[in-house]
Amino acid sequence: MYAVVLAAGAGTRLASISVGLPKSLVTLNEKPLLAHVLQRLERAGFAQVIIVTGFQSERVEEFLKNFSSSLTITTVHNTEYQRENGFSLLCARSFMSDRFVLAMGDHIVDPEIYRVAGNAKSLGLCVDRAPSLNCQTNDATRVWVEDEKIVRIGKELTEWNALDTGIFSLTPKIFEALDSLRGQNQLTITHAIRQLISQGCSIKALDVSGKFWSDIDTPEDLRETEKFLKSPR
User: Fold this and answer.
1) pLDDT value of position 133
2) Taking CA 3 as the corner, what is the angle to CA 225 and CA 229, rounded to the nearest 5 degrees?
3) C-alpha to C-alpha distance for 82 and 223, rounded to whole angstroms
4) CATH hierarchy code of domain 2-228
5) What is the DSSP letter of 157?
6) Most confident of 17-21, 215-219, 227-231
7) Cα–Cα distance measured from residue 118 to residue 2, given in angstroms and rounded to the nearest whole number
8) pLDDT tens digits, 129-160
């Protein structure tokens, strides 16, 4: 099974420490974020990874040349990396004929979360019903779950009972949903999931509560993640 990693962003909110690097190459505990993501995918049992690059893509390519791994890694370039994240996912479309796992290049997660997504049988989103860290709750996408299904999703939700961890089990239906959103300035994965729900598709809530995950958007998120990973557990 393929995993797709979105790593196209510039990470403007990390500009004070990124020194012009693409966000995925910002260092966390002496390793680039992307190295953490790939090593955790490898530990979760994945063999093939598509990485969507964008800002400073040549630097990501250079990093990958020197990255030692058993993974088969293919890169595709998003020339519109400043647009919504749906543009990045669409760049991987030609590789996806069956179910795949979508991961984010700025999310550090327990490998078990990748396994849960990989073992899902259909469309699904890994959710956390008991988030406790600021790097999880800051700027998080909220979801409302009923009967183990995603009913509503969005950062603007005032009522929610779980958070989106950024790890999805998807099928090519996601590309059809993104196609239907072209021209609406809403070409995001969140809007595509909403579109699928509105069409009657079932999006399973894959509960990974209690497993570590972090969405790194700011220097504070980075420091909190570093502290957590260094702490004895």
Assistant:
1) 86
2) 15
3) 26
4) 3.90.550.10
5) -
6) 215-219
7) 9
8) 999 888 788 888 999 999 999 999 999 999 99
Alpha carbon distance 214, 85 (integer Å):
18
Find residue 153's DSSP bridge partners: 143
Distance of CA 99 to the CA centre of its chain: 16
Short-list 6, 7, 17, CA closest to 222: 17
Residue 101 and residue 149 in contact, taking contact as beta carbons nearer than 8 Å: no
Of 65, 59, 76, 63, whose CA–CA distance to 10 is shortest?
Answer: 59
Report the pLDDT value the prediction gives residue 233, as an integer from 0 to 100: 62
Sign of the alpha-carbon torsion through 149, 104, 66, 32: negative
What is the residue extent of each domain of the chain?
A: 2-228
Tell me if 164 sits within 8 A of 153, measured CB to CB: yes
Contacts of 189 (CB under 8 A, 6+ apart): 85, 86, 89, 102, 168, 174
Give the percent of the chain with pLDDT over 90: 87
Q: What is the secondary structure of 110-138 as a DSSP string?
A: -HHHHHHHHH-SSSEEEEESS--SHHHHT
CA dist 19 and 21 (Å) reads 6
Residue 76 has pLDDT above 90, yes or no: yes
d(CA 103, CA 198): 23
Handedness of CA 176, 177, 180, 184 (dihedral sign): negative
